[in-house]
Amino acid sequence: MTEITGAAAPERTLWSDVWYQFRHHRGAVAGVIILGIIVLAILIGPWLHGVDPQHIDIRARNAQPSLAHPMGTDNIGRDIFAQVLQGGRVSLSVGVTAMLLSLLLGTLVGVLAGFFRRLDGVLMRLTDLFLALPLLPLLLVIIMLFRDTLRGLFGPETGIFLLIVFIIGITSWMQTARIVRGDVLTLKEQEFVLAARSIGTPSHRIILRHVLPNILSPIMVSATLGVANAIITESALSFLGLGFPSDFPTWGRLLFDGANFMMLNPARVIWPGLAISLTVLSINFIGDGLRDALDPRIRGR
Amino acid sequence: MTPETAGEPLLRVEGLKVHFPVTRGLLRRRVGAVRAVDDVSFDIAAGETLGLVGESGCGKSSTGRAILRLYAPTAGSVRLEGREISRLDGRELRALRPRMQMIFQDPQASLNPRMTVGSIIAEPLREHTGMGREEIRARVQELLDAVGLARAYASRYPHEFSGGQRQRIGIARALALNPKFIVCDEPIAALDVSIQAQVVNLLEDLQEQFGLTYLFISHDLSMVRHLARRVAVMYLGRIMELGPRDPLYARPLHPYSAALLSAVPSPDPELEARRERIVLRGDVPSPRHPPEGCVFSTRCPKVFDRCRREIPALRAAGQGRRVACHLVEPEGEPGPDIQQRRSG
């Protein structure tokens, strides 16, 4: 324990403490910087680079990196750098949105199942049901059924974006739900939850005030893994021809398209792969730092 | 207290039962029940401390929690200030919460590690009063003063404190709403011996200052002797003996109380040398399958036939004492057997 010197100690706020701890987590700071660079590049890169990712220049196909094409070109002469930048927008937004959706679902189901005994059986059997579903056939069916409707409603790109986010979201929340439920179950028996009950705090506020802040770590871990998972699932869908239209680059699609030309032009695989890895890694580090920063027991060590 | 309930004690518990169902299989078929608390009755007068003692797993904590309605009582009645509370629900129960509070055993587990001390103590205020931010701050500081902690601690986290300090935080939280009645659930069991005295003294001071009534649950017989005016001895979910502290400690009527008290070492070496330890044989039976008749019959050194057939009622035995034992004559002196052992 540290000694305190009377009332002279300055008033600390929660967020200043969190920020202080976060800044001192090297991995997290590095993660923020790398992710920041990637996001910046994706946002303003296409504007600076100024090459249309769809522009076909058949004479410059499979070109080596040069000033005009910093990452070279593909087999029909499209600029890889422009495609990676363009693809990043889609991949990142799909990754983050789908992660948020699955996190929301998973946490909701997990907390309800763990906290309310009556819901436990039903919700966990539902989770098992989802886990047991054969994912790929399900995806095929959903996409076949809803693709055209959604395209008609929101336009080809937004429609497919919503569909993919939705599909990834509702097929990847189960692990989160299980982990969260387990933690809520142990937490619920802690005396401070009992104390809150003896005070008369209603259940929803017990959940918000006492349960959720204490299950942040597994949620954070799920979140960081979820982004990676979503990006990769999106790639798989695109690979099957079920994702975005074929002329619409995403990191996953670039990777799979490039896989056939790996021997001829390794740059086509390396760059999108590197982009995915760096994004996932930096998000992982940020999650790690956030988790530590939000835990007062670790804070200040 | 309302006029028509003036004659009633602050808390009256009658025939309280807490049974936890034991279920098995996919369909959660009920196959039995753990009788944590079985037919417990007692009164606590305003400003009094009732000590509730017994070994681990005898239902002391369950009794306390059922009184505070943290567990749903299976049967029986709990009246606080003349009002039946064992069947209240929802809003009514919540409105009653400020009248009764609890101090928990494990000061580490009873404080949310992610909240500052200030917000922990402020939680009851935020839940039950319409106080503004500044008012709450002022009240939290007042409470920190009352339990002997520095005001600046309000912005710190529980893990930065020692066990005794954490228990003080828990006490401050329990006091926040000016309750009349506090259940102290082994508040000193998890503390160092040197800190125990501090916390007990604090509890005594606060009782005097705020006119509190305690149900003091403990397995520490010496602490109960120090703090309580009356003592109830529990075994396997039932009260074995209930009475004023001094006669109970001087001359326990129930064989179980006698055995329990014989385990307390005496600070006086001469008395200690003469202390006769009554060692009970066997283990406490499972509360799922309590023995027929007297629950203590399986281990009682004075057991006889009737004990195995008939559950002894908690009967008055003079001097305000009540005992659940067939050996004790109603309203009279203990049976010849016990007297003999005491004198010899």
Helix-strand category of chain B: alpha/beta
Q: Helix/strand/pairing class of chain A, anyone?
A: mainly alpha
List low-confidence stretches of chain A.
1-10
Structure annotation, total helices of chain B: 12
The global form of chain B is globular
Report mean pLDDT of chain B, rounded to a whole number: 85
- CATH class membership of the domain at 94-299 in chain A: Mainly Alpha
Largest sheet of chain A: none
How can the largest sheet of chain B be summarized?
A: 8 strands, mixed
CATH topology of the domain at 94-299 in chain A: MetI-like fold
Could you explain how this protein is built, in words?
- The complex is a heterodimer of chains A (301) and B (344).
- Chain A has a domain at 94-299: MetI-like (MetI-like fold), CATH 1.10.3720.
- Chain A is built from twelve helices and no strands.
- Chain A has helices at residues 14-23, 26-49, 80-115, 117-132, 135-154, 156-171, 174-188, 191-199, 203-211, 216-239, 251-259, 267-294.
- In chain A, helix 3 (80-115) crosses helix 6 (156-171), helix 3 crosses helix 10 and helix 3 runs parallel beside helix 12.
- Chain A is globular and about 75 Å long.
- Mean pLDDT of chain A is 81; it is low at 1-10.
- Residues 1-6 and 332-344 of chain B have low confidence and may be disordered.
- Chain B is of the alpha/beta class and 344 residues long.
- The radius of gyration of chain B is 21 Å and the shape is globular.
- In chain B, strand 11 and strand 12 form a beta hairpin.
- Chain B is built from twelve helices and twelve strands.
- Chains A and B meet through helix 8 and helix 9 of A and helix 3 of B.
